[in-house]
Specification:
There is one protein chain. By secondary structure, the protein is an all-alpha fold. The chain has one domain. The protein has 5 helices and no strands. The protein has helices at residues 2-16, 32-49, 55-68, 72-89, 91-95. Helix 1 (2-16) packs parallel to helix 2 (32-49) and helix 2 (32-49) runs antiparallel to helix 3 (55-68). The longest helix is centred in the middle third of the chain and has 18 residues, at 32-49. It is elongated and about 45 Å long.
Length: 99
């Protein structure tokens, strides 16, 4: 199940990039250790070219890529930025109540 989720997540990340092709080795599809090594590399490749005109959407996807790439400090900064942007436009964040 974890392998399937990982592969679906990788496919989802690849679809975020507009027209770029990213490749996984054949072993990544059958070996969870190889997949766990390939995911940070793939996330870094996607981050280089990732763009989105919607700032909230961009930050929402970027922090997930940063986590996959192991860039946890960067992800924390991105999440804080996303929260600050959300406070401006989402009443749920203005009150401090999160579901």
């Amino acid at each position: 199940m974890k392998k399937l989720f990982g592969l679906l997540f990788a496919y989802g990340i690849c679809s975020l990039s507009s027209g770029q092709k990213f490749y996984l080795t054949r072993a990544s599809f059958t070996d969870s250790i190889e997949l766990s090594k390939a995911m940070p590399v793939l996330a870094n490749q996607v981050m280089v070219n990732y763009k989105d005109d919607n700032r909230r959407s961009y930050l929402n996807n970027l922090f997930r890529l940063q986590i996959l790439a192991g860039k946890y400090s960067d992800a924390n900064v991105t999440i804080d930025t996303l929260r600050n942007i959300s406070k401006e436009s989402d009443p749920q964040f203005k009150t401090g109540y999160h579901k």
